[in-house]
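chain below, 258 aa
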Amino acid sequence: YVCSTWGNNHFKTFDGDIYQFPGICEYNFASDCRESYKEFSVHIQRALKSDNHPEIQYILITIKDFTVYLKPKLAVVDGRIVKTPYYSSGVLIESNDIYTKVYAKLGLTLIWNQEDALMVELDSKFNNHTCGLCGDYNGVPIYNEFFNGAASYNSITYGNLQKISKPHAKCEDPDETQALPSCNRHRDECERLLTSSAFADCRLRLNLEMYIQACMQDKCACNGNEDSFCLCSTISQYSRQCSHAGGRPGEWRTQYFC
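prediction:
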């Protein structure tokens, strides 16, 4: 099962919820949350680039007692900069100009495009044992709502709860009253883009509706601006996840589009 984040602050949990959370602090993305012994944790921090689009600044992975700090084109293990491919203590780090990948023998794979998109795949032995922005991995999606006992949260409250408290952090929590309204405009266009012939092999592999929802959110958030980030990030995420699920997406980018 895969948890991912991409583009305009979209998140898709292990259980398949899709939500948006625009926080720019350091957050627990996915961690083993058993009381006794935590096998791994993945933290992320986003920042806004000069064009106001979010990208992931760094990822901090702890596997047992081993820490990996990733920035674009940089991997630091236990405080030392390392050359990739790097292998030690059951952890392999690979990187090229496009991706950084981390494989851990305990059942974790992480793939980052060194910009906006990160995906973590976990072995099913972690079912029901995780916490963080990726959710609890118990197989039950709760679309748009996160429950804790009797209380339900919106996605911003939920995201703020995952913040890693750091004494000198200079970052504001996003305002919980500003949770993004759902958006149903542009459905036809999003559907047309995601069901084009390039994605014929993806239809049965992924939940199309989730990506249509994310695409509509993007179109609304960009207020109809045709900037490529707004439209392309969710489509490229759909294409990546399709490949990851064993599909073969065709060439969907053109000279004029993305």
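The longest strand covers residues 54-63. The chain has two domains: 2-165, 187-244.
thats it, cya
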